[in-house]
Amino acid sequence: MGRVVVVDHPLVQHKLAILRDERTGAKEFRELLEEISMLMAYEITRDLPTEEVEVKTPLATCKCRMLVGKKIGLVPILRAGLGMVNGVLRLIPAAKVGHIGLYRDPETHQPVEYYCKLPPDTGERELIVLDPMLATGGSAAAAIQFLKEKGARQIKLMALVAAPEGIRRVQEQHPEVDIYVAAVDWYLNEHAYIVPGLGDAGDRLFGTK
Ligand code: PRP
Ligand code: URA
Questions:
Q1: Which of 33, 100, 102 is the best mutation target for the ligand 1 pocket, counting ligand atoms within 8 Å of the beta carbon and taking the most?
Q2: Which of 17, 22, 82, 147 is the most exposed, fewest CB within 10 Å of its CB?
Q3: How far apart are CA 97 and CA 120, in angstroms?
Q4: pLDDT tens, 96-124?
Q5: Measured between alpha carbons, how far is 176 from 147 in angstroms, rounded to an integer?
Q6: Measured between alpha carbons, how far is 112 from 102 in angstroms, rounded to an integer?
Q7: Which residue's CA lies nearest to atom 5 of ligand 2?
Q8: What percent of the chain has pLDDT over 90?
Q9: In ligand 1, which atom is closest to the CA atom of 202?
Q10: For the chain, what is the mean pLDDT?
Q11: Rounded mean pLDDT of 39-67?
Q12: CA dist., res. 33 & res. 141, Å (int)
């Protein structure tokens, strides 16, 4: 079974508390989401392979470690996942970015796909799916399924706030996928919104409500 890692670093928790606050406006929301994503990227890349290299400093030659150069792909789920891309790219600038457009049907809560553009070598990359909200888990599970059908073999999921139901769904459908979150909240309400959550992430990010 894939791991569920709750990134409980004080900086992440502090920034998430401000992000949740209903008084936080779109500009600050965007900045905080980017910062938290960067901090979570530090954790999600912890197991990247490194190799020994020799480095000549002004004083001596020493053995150091550098990344082996594993190919990474970021796959934000539109729209809200877009708010996480720049934060992760600041730490992994060589990553390629694919996009999957999904929206939740307001009646059925089922994900509906409307866009997809992935790097041509998607199957060779370690992929990180980005979406701040893991509610029913339908969107994340569908995106991961889609990536597998395109040949992806190594996939991690980075969310910000998860409901227990969403974690269960991804674990059931994709048991090998590691899930990184900043918080696991209480439950889903009758509209399948996460409680306490932070509201509609896409709307808060882009000021559409
Ligand atoms: C939100 C969120 C996730 C999805 C989570 O997107 O960003 O993609 O809902 O819900 P689920 O786990 O129940 O599938 P939404 O459909 O509101 O689209 P948007 O990002 O374009 O606003
Ligand atoms: N999508 C959101 O943006 N927020 C939720 O709480 C659930 C789905």
A1: 102
A2: 22
A3: 11
A4: 999 999 988 989 988 999 999 999 999 99
A5: 14
A6: 5
A7: 193
A8: 93
A9: 22
A10: 96
A11: 97
A12: 22
Name the amino acid, one letter, at 96: K
The residue among 123, 185, 133 whose CA lies nearest residue 155 is: 123
Query: How many Å apart are CA 172 and CA 193, to the nearest integer?
Result: 20
List the one residue out of 26, 69, 35, 54 whose CA is nearest residue 200: 26
Q: Return the bridge partners of 135, or none.
A: none
Percent of the chain clearing pLDDT 70 (strictly above): 100
Please name which ligand lies nearest the alpha carbon of 200: 2
**For a substitution probing ligand 1, which of 84, 114, 133, 203 has the most ligand atoms within 8 Å of its CB?**
133
- Paired tokens of 75: 């796959």
Indicate whether residue 80 lines ligand 1 (CB < 6 A).
Answer: yes
Which letter does DSSP use for residue 48 in this model?
Answer: -
Determine whether the shortest distance from the Cβ of 206 to ligand 2 is under 6 A. no
SS3 assignment, position 152: coil
Q: Which amino acid is at 26?
A: A
187 forms beta bridges with: 195
Q: Half-sphere exposure of 54 toward its Cβ, with a 13 Å CA cutoff?
A: 3
Whether the full predicted model's pTM is greater than 0.70, yes or no, is: yes
Tokens encoding 186: 């209480």
Closest alpha carbon to 98 in 118, 113, 79, 83: 118
Q: What's the mean pLDDT in 42-71?
A: 95
Residue pair 19/196 in contact (Cβ under 8 Å)? The answer is no
